[in-house]
Amino acid sequence: MSAGITHLPTELVEYILFHLDPLDVSKTAQTCWMLRNVVYGDDRQSFWRVLYLAQPLDDPRFTVTHLGRPRAPPPAYPGYSDVVEGTTASVVMTNAVGIDWASDLQHIIRAKTVIQNPALCREGEWKEVLSTLLMVATNLPAVPFCGSGPESRNVAWITALLGDGKALSTLERISESTWTHEEKQMLARLHVWIGLTPEDFGNRLKRASTRALVYDLSNYSQVNGYGPFLKDGTMRVDWMTIHALAHVYGILQLELDRTDRGYSNDSDAEDDVDPYSQSGISAEGRAPSASALLPFCQSVIAPNMDLEQGMVDWAGIEGHWTIGYCFLDDWGFAHYNGSEVCSSTTLFSQAGLNELKLFSPSFNQHALEFFISEDDVIDEEYHAVGVRFRITGFEPDPDHPSRPKINYAGDALDDELPVTGFVKLTPDDQIWWHFGGGNGELGNWNCEGIGLGSIRSPAGVVGVWSSFAHGDEDPVGPFWMYRQFGDEEEENAD
Question: What pLDDT sits at residue 23?
Fold first, then answer.
């Protein structure tokens, strides 16, 4: 009788299995009871931990959530606290050492399989798939300084799977007919973290629909605080609006870069929308590259900084910032928000209208037609101002004890434009930036934004700016604010 793999020592069998793709491991486990016991037996967590760490993924024990908290720290993890909001110390310790290696890796591999072939998705499974992808994208290793440390393996994994935009475009089309509002919000958040893709650039219909959402005054009211929040009064983030704001700003940024580089057609610029070719801040200092946002999303937490102390700059406020903002010229804005937008004809087939609906929750056919028909004459402007922020005080936040509300102030335009604002967490644990400023000559304006990436990351803040009065004829548009990392960062680490 010849010996087979089942006659080998268990340790050697495990060693062989560790070199297989997890899908092949699962198939192998179905061949006999001995192999099934190795893969799914009582000691399965030890087996799946080694298999997980053999994948091109970050070790979850050394990643932090988007709020800068260790996802599951080992004992004596730097900055770790036994007390986390809404939990007891015993629960926290259980979670800290209780990563379900088998379940996590199985969900990750399943999500990858479904993304590569959406037809394999089971009924009601999309929420789980999106949740898994967000888990990988938003739990990243922190770095001590901007640009330091090795590249996150999670970033590389997500970029390889979704960075070209083809799968995201497919999911956006699928979402229109069958997905829930929550699932659409999750997809929009995932797209925001990834940034613009080659599929986004040159998509005329998507640009029209996102512009129609962003520049429509009716989308901002007291109900959503005149910001990128859901229209239900909860002040939870509307990720579809954030996605539209980032898309409008990002496409304009790439157009300006294309002009600076002397590109003569869209295909040249489209080829340059690459996750690695533009990783950095543009020469003009406009913003972190909108086409490669994910590499900017890692938290920057100095080695001596304990974010759980409460009264610290947990949001990374203090320092020099650049605020870039976009707006339509007076003619375009007035025509779009006025009665002349309406017409008795349609420019699109039903299929075209359905595609427009993918990107604009507040669908207005005539408004969208305006941005298509007048695309050549619409003048979309870009400007930027520099400002230095300083913290002026803290206020307790009972819902987030270790992340208190931070009040701050600053001056722009050579101290001619005073700015005041606050940062706090929203009810759904996102980082809300509010600020405003102005004077008699420059007017008074208001900004509501959401922090992109993880806490204190270079990804910046995207939101909507408008006038303080929010009048019917007042301007509105997207802004992207990012911090200038440099000497101050090193000084703070000393």
Answer: 93
β-bridge mates for residue 465, sequence order: 447, 477
Helix, strand or coil, per DSSP, at residue 83: coil
- Model pTM score: 0.84
pLDDT at 363 over 70: no
Question: How does DSSP assign 42-97, residue by residue?
Answer: TTHHHHHHHHHHTSSS--GGG-B-TTS-BSSPPTT-TT--S--TTS-HHHHHHHHH
Give the residue among 350, 335, 351, 373 at the shortest CA–CA distance from 204.
373
Number of residues that this document lists for the chain: 494
The per-residue DSSP string of 338-381 comes to SGGG--SS-SS-HHHHHHHHTT-SS--HHHHHHHHHTTTT--EE
Give the per-residue pLDDT at 365: 55
- Quick one: pLDDT band at residue 94, thresholds 50, 70, 90? very low
Q: Could you tell me which residues are beta bridge partners of residue 393?
A: 407
Backbone dihedral angles phi then psi of residue 30, each to the nearest 5 degrees: -85, -5
What does the alpha-carbon distance between residue 439 and residue 343 come to, in Å, rounded to a whole number? 40
Residue in the block written with tokens 């613009």: 196
Say if residue 19's pLDDT is above 70: yes
**Percent of the chain residues past pLDDT 90, beyond the cut:** 54
Question: From the centroid of its chain, how far is CA 51?
Answer: 28
Beta strand spans in 196-337 (E)? 319-328
